[in-house]
Amino acid sequence: MSDTKKVLVAEDSSVIINLTKNVLMFENFQITAVKNGKQVLDKLQKEDFDLILMDINMPVMNGIECTKAIRALKDSEKAKIPIVAITGNYQNFTMDEFKQAGLDDYLQKPLDYDLLLSTVKKHMPQS
Fold first, then answer.
1. CA 26 to CA 43: how far, in whole Å?
2. What domains, with CATH codes, occur in the chain?
């Protein structure tokens, strides 16, 4: 029996969601996609995930606010989930600012899908 890893993709672009799903599902990851940070928090209350890919610029609740909310969760397992930022304007933030918000890494748009896959694998908890 395979231990399928679950990735939550928080991204308001359907194109990026679909491309990311195709890349990660090819590697047997189970993908759930949402469109904003509030939906991330709602999903986390109901399900467990191994990693979150978090767009920084989303409506309702952006990726930085959402990451801070996740890091503050009472459930210590969920509060420690690896979170990788996806951003098109990473120049607006330093890596220190990403780290202070609780992000583990970041990927720049347009996404390099080989880098996406290696970054996901790098942060995926080993079973």
1. 23
2. 9-91+102-123 (3.40.50.2300)
